[in-house]
Design goal:
homodimer, alpha/beta, Spore Coat Polysaccharide Biosynthesis Protein SpsA, Chain A, 4-stranded mixed beta sheet, globular
Chain lengths: ~400, ~400
């Protein structure tokens, strides 16, 4: 992550973080970590990464960093040192086979399959309800399947602080240090430091704020009080459900009904009956924002590099360029010839691709669809997907 | 063809051409046209049009104008009103099946198949020798298979003048009126008008000149004395062979040996034995230039639009852009979505192609190779082909 100006608080946080966490880890009874369970919501089709990412093969099923791991596998591996195989995945029914191929070790009872998308409130809420039914003392940590994070150790240190903080009765979000005045993310406004053993960098959260204008985003950046909301939560399941019940009683009731049946023979029958009736809402509205207003939310600054791979320009950031060229090429067996060309080529075929005299281009070559755009216009790929859907060309979406 | 400044001679030529030719046609005995035979050399792979045009499917086998006809079929149809089925095609042996598919009516004896390329001297020379053997009074007209000409009637009027002129003992080239100071073509410098009945626009030719620098090309354009050499010749076969014998006696001897055997049972045996031994040379060096020096060459100005489809920028000129867009799309069943994009898309697949925020782009999408460049760099496509050949990627050439 490129260094940029950030406030005094951020500087202080990063200086103490690793050291303090190590100390904390050594002094804390291991039981608090034993309560920790990972949850990986794996949803969204990543339309800005079309035609690579699409309904049948969403972003989290791709290796977008050239590491050899798909994003969901990397997310799972990043959590394992914290919770072993106590990891639950919530994804679409259509992705069952693909997810099992990536995570062959996952138990059936820890793979929650949605028959239809119901947004993050239902997805994360159901995980919380199932875990609560198993053990009401569980602390869950929810981390999206399609984010790129490094180094894993710094991430894990932040999660350990978050677990300590959650054990004190907080819904803890891990804030991402902003590197530029992004208008594409929501922000978290930190308040005072919390004095929690094992979590020296924990702060209270004053509020979550929606995606800002660029001017406001610049103010946020300069103040040093704001971090990006990456949707990472560590919280006692009981506290999650308390806020869910208060804000979305119908959703809470439905999720509890499914959770009661989950580890019984009637799991499939109840889920099939109840899930379609659930209201659609984001976990931010259902839990995080009202919890923040109630003073129940804390924040641990995450001083790791983080990318949500929001468009193809990110592919360029996350992958090295070719030797003697400003061209980044992704794809096994890609056959690219370039002359005076720069940009990004994602090859999902074995075709020869020749680029001549073209700069900052983005080319995504798949068997049934080809995208040609520029880094500058990478965000507009969503429009193409919408237009194709409108025109009935859904075979390639 | 865009109007541009051209000299006084050109203006005079175009004014009289059509009218005079009609008059000439009415007053001339029909026998001079009965002597006329068409020859279509169909060679070259058109590497600047890779990956659409390639060794196995060269330029002349494609419909590059969206007319529904391949270039070779259009060339054949343009000649038919002049000579019916008295048309000979010279092409590579590997293209036999594809050419017969385009020209199913062609007789075996009029399809000359080269076992290996020997340049235009041997190709056009062999046609001349075979026709001479059949009838020494034949006037041949040689027209490359991969040029785009319109309207056909104006072309045919020029050829009729050329036939009249050839009947007076000239090798007649049809000069193309230059529309810009091209450095990519050779030029023909015209001399005095020739007073030939039925060919009021016939001029003597002072010399052929090689591709000029841009400054020289501009002088040529301004002088009004120069036209582009499109390699179109109309000439008595006897005169062609006289110059060929004088300049390339070995080539002449070999071609005559094949021609003697052509309409006999030993055609295949003799051609197979002699052809590989023939020297490689262009018809320009073997016949046209020395004939011009001897005062035996005349020129008819061709006031039709002409394009040799030298690169993908030409595809843009020859095909209309999409409605509400500056994008030209070629290819049956092309599925192109574009947003703020301009340029040329040639689709040889059924894939969806999405273009977003990119200008003057050239995209050629074929099953095994993809080219992405710009109109400005279209001429450099040849480099890609050379680099692919050098790297051993010959499967896509």
């Amino acid at each position: 992550m490129a260094s940029s100006s950030y406030g005094a608080d951020w500087a202080r946080w990063s200086n103490v973080e690793l050291m303090s966490t190590e100390r904390a880890h050594a002094h804390t009874p291991s039981s608090v970590f034993d309560r920790f369970h990972g949850v990986i919501p794996a949803g969204g089709t990543g339309t800005r990464l079309w035609p690579l990412s699409r309904a049948a093969a969403p972003k989290f099923l791709h290796d977008l960093t050239g590491s050899g791991s798909t994003l969901i596998r990397a997310t799972y591996d990043r959590l394992r040192p914290l919770c072993g195989d106590r990891i639950m995945v919530v994804t679409g029914k259509v992705h069952r086979r693909a997810v099992l191929k990536q995570l062959p070790e996952i138990k059936d009872s820890n793979l929650v399959l949605e028959s239809e998308p119901k947004d993050s409130g239902a997805a994360i809420g159901l995980a919380a309800a199932i875990l609560f039914k198993r053990d009401p003392d569980i602390i869950m940590g929810s981390f999206a399947a399609d984010q790129v994070i490094a180094p894993a150790e710094v991430f894990q240190a932040a999660v350990r602080e978050a677990i300590h903080t959650a054990a004190e009765g907080y819904i803890v979000t891990i804030g991402i240090r902003p590197t530029h005045p992004s208008t594409g993310f929501g922000y978290i406004r930190a308040g005072d430091p919390l004095l929690i053993e094992g979590a020296p960098s924990a702060h209270s959260v004053v509020e979550f704020v929606e995606k800002p204008s660029v001017g406001v985003a610049r103010e946020y950046l300069d103040s040093g009080k704001y971090s990006w909301n990456a949707g990472m939560f560590v919280a006692p399941v009981a506290l999650m459900l308390k806020h869910l019940e208060a804000n979305e009683p119908l959703l809470y009731a439905g999720l509890t009904e499914i959770a009661e049946a989950w580890d019984t023979p009637s799991r499939v029958e109840v889920a099939r009956r109840v899930w379609p009736s659930l209201p659609k809402t984001a976990i931010d509205y259902a839990v995080a924002e009202p919890a923040a207003a109630a003073g129940d939310v804390a924040m641990i600054p995450g001083d790791f590099s983080w990318d949500d791979v929001g468009d193809f320009a990110a592919i360029g950031r996350l992958n090295p360029a070719m030797e003697n060229s400003e061209l980044t090429v992704m794809g096994e067996g890609a056959r690219v010839f370039s002359e005076n060309a720069s940009g990004i080529v994602v090859s999902d075929t074995k075709r020869v691709i020749a680029l001549i005299g073209i700069d900052d281009v983005v080319i995504v070559d798949t068997p049934d669809a080809l995208l040609v755009t520029t880094k500058e216009h990478a965000q507009e790929v969503k429009k193409a997907v919408e237009a194709l859907r409108a025109s009935g060309d859904i075979d390639v979406l």
